[in-house]
Amino acid sequence: MPPHHIAGAILVAVIWGFNFAAIRIGLDSFPPLLMTALRFVGAAIPVLWLARPANAPWRLMLAVAFTWYVGQFVFLFSAMAESVPPGLAAVIVHTQAPLTIVFALLIGERPTAKQATGVGVAVLGLALVGASVGGASVGAVTVIGFGLALMSATSWAVGNILSKRLGKIDLNMVAWLSLLAPLPSLALSLWLEGPSVIVTSIAQASWASWLAIAYLAIMATLVAYLIWGSLLRLYPASAVTPFALLVPVISAIVSYIFFDERFGPLRLSGMALIVAGLAVIAWPTTRSPPRA
Question: How many Å apart are CA 204 and CA 198, to the nearest integer?
């Protein structure tokens, strides 16, 4: 991979690493369900004029939009609104990788020994993080918050399995999925958060929260997915996906610097094991050259 493509992969990891900080800022003004709708309205509008007819069944696209976009981010935003800080949220949500491997068993895929090892390490780390939740200390993560973050990872993993039937995920597909996501998100917001909360939030939102929505829509959704999708079309997934391991690391560093997030020994050990498990799963296997 040439240096400019490596730089592109690192740029995506940085964009997604700051994504969780933007979510935290946006939640200061917007409730989580409304913020999900606003994110994807902002992502769909700039590319509507580029959208071509979707080359996939609408029922499948709706299922992917509900799991990949609506479910993942409704649960993630709700978890962070409840109690989960950005750095920890990034680590928990990225357990979608081992969860995807587990769910792939349902469609007949069998994990390799390396993947099974990575799943085991990540699950052990998740158990340690789970053991650290609760309590009355400042910044403590509640069981509800931890459960919502885990549901976000689960929804992402289910979307991964469904998206395998969509074929190539390009900018056109991202545009259509972004267009399908706001309506159910807004309907949930109207039902659970209420019209008065929606109106008040939009009217009184700070400029920083609006900038956070713009970052989530344009940078974290359109720009990052466009670069990432381009790299996946040029190189094997095994060469590209390890760069995603930087995301929870960058997010934890950003959260430590800007939000004073602290990690106790048990939680830090669990987070380290989750990242180690992801590394085992994602890192390409080196093969010795064939003998003459």
Answer: 10
Tens digit of pLDDT for each residue in 174-200?
778 888 888 899 999 999 999 999 999
Question: Domain residues of the chain, as ranges?
Answer: 3-282
Question: What is the pTM for the complete model shown?
Answer: 0.84
CA 83 from chain center: how many Å? 17
The pLDDT confidence band at residue 138, using thresholds 50, 70 and 90, is: very low
The helix (run of H) or strand (run of E) holding residue 114 is: helix 113-131
Number of other residues whose CB lies within 10 A of the CB of residue 2: 7
77 confidence band (pLDDT: 50, 70, 90)? very high
Q: Could you tell me which of 192, 195, 156, 181 has the C-alpha nearest to residue 75?
A: 156
Pseudo-torsion of CA 15, 19, 21, 25, nearest 10°?
Answer: 120
Task: Let me know if 60 is exposed, middle or buried by CB neighbors in 10 A (0-12, 13-18, 19+).
Answer: middle
